[in-house]
Structures are given as C-alpha cells and as structure tokens.
Amino acid sequence: MILLNDIISSAKDLRTSLIRQYISLNFLISNGIAKDEIKEFKNSIDELKESYEDLESVFFFLPEMPDFVETTKKLSLI
User: Fold this and answer.
1) CA-CA distance, 42 to 18, in Å (whole number)?
2) Is 54 helix (H, G, I), strand (E, B) or coil?
3) What start-end ranges are recorded for coiled-coil regions in this protein (predicted)?
4) Distance CA 37, CA 42 (A)
5) pLDDT at 78
6) 8 Å CB contact between 55 and 10
7) What is the model's pTM?
8) How far apart are CA 36 and CA 77, in angstroms?
9) N or C: which end of the chain has fewer CB within 10 A?
10) Digit-coded pLDDT (tens) for 15-30
C-alpha cells in the first residue's frame, strides 16, 4: 500500500507539472498553433487525474465503506 500511495503521489506531482506546461502553451493556443495537439495534451492530463483518483478510490476509500466490503465478500462467494 505504501508503494501504491507513492505512485499516486508521483502521479499528482506529474499532473501539477504538466498543468504548468499546458498553461505555458497559451501563447500557441491563442495564435491557433497546434490546437488539436494541445487539446489532446490536456485530455491526457485529465485522464491521468482520473486514473489516480480511481486508484485512490479502489484501494483507499472504498475498502473503508462497510457496504463495499459486504458486497465484495458476497461476490467472492460466487
């Protein structure tokens, strides 16, 4: 779990760095240069955020919810 937490923290740090880079591209966007590529870059940043948020939910938040634990136990019996 510690390793997973480190990976999530690294992903958050990476996203912060990528957002700064994205903001620095505003000049290009305003001049219509590489608009599609920059849009895809932003989409990738958003997907990174979704991925680490999903990991946080699955490994840290959901196991703390009693209903989730009960459902998981029932499914493991199938």
Assistant:
1) 9
2) helix
3) 31-58
4) 9
5) 67
6) no
7) 0.80
8) 48
9) C
10) 999 999 999 999 999 9
Q: Which amino acid is at 53?
A: E
| Residue for token pair 């989409």 | 43
Chain Cα centroid distance, residue 70: 27
* CB contact burial 53-72 (16+ within 10 A = b; e otherwise): eeebeeeeeeeeeeeeeeee
Residue with tokens 């938040």: 61
Under 8 Å CB-to-CB from 7, ≥6 apart: which residues? 52, 55
The residue count for the chain: 78
pLDDT tens profile 30-69:
999 999 999 999 999 999 999 999 999 999 888 888 888 8
How many Cα atoms occupy the beta-carbon half-sphere of 56 within 13 Å? 12
Domain boundaries, the chain: 2-77
- Give the amino acid at 19: I
